């Protein structure tokens, strides 16, 4: 039997056995493996960004070219996040 809360202050009350889903869903991670995975992902992203900056020339200056490419990536990520947030808050 489950009693639904009628306001946001009182939590849901369950009668019976309730399993904690968070403990069962998370496998134990090795910190070294997580660190190596993150380092590898950032290394791959840097290599791809370097190749992209060599192919797309906006300016003769490497600094201006880097700012242009990072600005385009930042704008794209911001637009993607904003649109995703607008659609997820509709429901």
Description:
The chain is mostly helical and 91 residues long. Helix content is 63%, strand content 4%. The chain has 3 helices and 2 strands. The protein has helices spanning 21-25, 31-55, 62-88; strands at 2-3, 13-14. The protein has a two-stranded antiparallel ribbon with strand order 1-2. The model has no long low-confidence stretch (mean pLDDT 76).
Key terms:
4% strand; 91 residues; mainly alpha
Mean pLDDT over the full residue set = 76
Quaternary state of this entry equals: single chain
Distance between the termini: 27 Å
By helix and strand content, what is the structural category? mainly alpha
Q: What is the strand arrangement across the widest sheet?
A: 1-2
Radius of gyration: 23 Å
Shape: elongated
Tell me briefly what this model is.
The chain has helices spanning about 20-25, 30-55, 60-90, and strands at about 1-5, 15. The protein is mostly helical and about 90 residues long.
């Amino acid at each position: 039997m489950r009693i639904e809360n009628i306001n946001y202050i009182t939590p849901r009350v369950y009668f019976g056995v309730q399993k904690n889903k968070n403990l069962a869903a998370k496998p134990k991670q090795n910190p070294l493996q997580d660190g190596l995975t993150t380092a590898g992902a950032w290394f791959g992203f840097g290599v791809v960004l370097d190749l992209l900056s060599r192919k797309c020339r906006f300016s003769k200056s490497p600094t201006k070219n880097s700012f242009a490419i990072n600005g385009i990536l930042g704008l794209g990520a911001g637009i993607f996040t904003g649109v995703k947030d607008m659609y997820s808050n509709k429901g």
